[in-house]
Amino acid sequence: MKVLVIRATGHHGASVIDGLLEAGNFTVQAFVRPESMTKPAVENLRDRGVEIRECDINGRLAELVKALDGIDIVISCVGTLQLDQLSLVNAAKKAGVKRFVPCGFITVAPPGGIMHMRDLKERVYNHIKQLRLPYTIIDVGWWYQVASLRVPSGKVDYVAVGLAEEIVGKGNIPSALTDLRDVGRYVTKIIIDEQTLNRMVFVYNTVMTQNQVYDLIEEMSGEKLERNYVADESIHARVAECRALAGKDATDPVKLHPLFLAEYKLSWGVRGDNNPDYAKYLGYLTSKDLYPDFEPAGFRDYLKSVFEGTAVVSIGIIG
């Protein structure tokens, strides 16, 4: 089965490539822009056995269709703001792609005004459905890699990215967490599973509250953390301010970054969207129900690698 990954060197793309190569039962290919063909990251993909297809997803439709010839499954990891996925969807339909995985890979949230990031993705999802292109949407919860916290000694600053340095409300809202490295392993199961065709799938490793995360880090580090609680009302006010700054048709990444962060906290920290029960209510299948024998990486094990200094750094906002 030929699987093509779009933006194979990004966070999610790299995890997907790792999973596909580890599974060993796929022909793995990647689209690379002409100007990036000689970059070290692309050479690394070649060395690992990934077939490189030179293509600009902003190019002409006929060129995209030709580049997708013979591909069974397309997995897009391009990022939220790249609505040129719409052209990619058109090309995938014309090329006869058997399954298209659009760039989802975020926390659970309902469409329609809760998270601008989600609503941008919904434009792509709706276009896929209008064309009747076979699809699977995959969301992944909140990464372990952005849930870790700084400790007073500073010994884990190399991985702490500052996205969890405040506690929303009283810190007792449960939220699903996933190791980024497991995302690709989940994907390899999902894309060959008939149960997941034309469905949404929520993959996650564990469910914890923010207070539980703080408690675990204090236990493992032996250090006391300052707990900066932020009232729900403050999160609502922050979201309103960010939305006003971003404007009605927000496209400026500089303005969108703080909006995305604020809306994430509104969604999973105030509303409690990012949990398996709500995912099922929205129509998702869940990884725990689909693949009960899957053995995910534990959050404690990830933190152990953080404190040992061996964790892989993942900078940036998910999605």
Give the helix/strand layout:
Layout: E1 2-6, H1 11-23, E2 27-32, H2 40-47, E3 51-54, H3 61-67, E4 73-76, H4 85-95, E5 99-101, H5 116-131, E6 136-139, E7 142-143, E8 167-168, E9 175-178, H6 180-190, E10 199-202, E11 206-208, H7 210-221, E12 229-230, H8 232-246, H9 253-271, H10 276-281, E13 285-286, H11 287-290, H12 299-308
Parallel strand pairs: 1-2, 1-4, 2-3, 4-5, 6-10, 7-9, 8-12, 10-13
Antiparallel strand pairs: 9-11
Helix pairs in contact: 1-6, 3-4, 4-5, 7-12, 8-9
In short:
By secondary structure, the protein is α/β, with parallel strands linked by helices. Helices cover 41% and strands 14% of the residues.
- Gross morphology is globular
Strand adjacency order, main sheet? 3-2-1-4-5
Total beta strand runs: 13
Please write the string of helix (H) and strand (E) elements.
Answer: EHEHEHEHEHEEEEHEEHEHHHEHH
| Rounded average pLDDT | 92
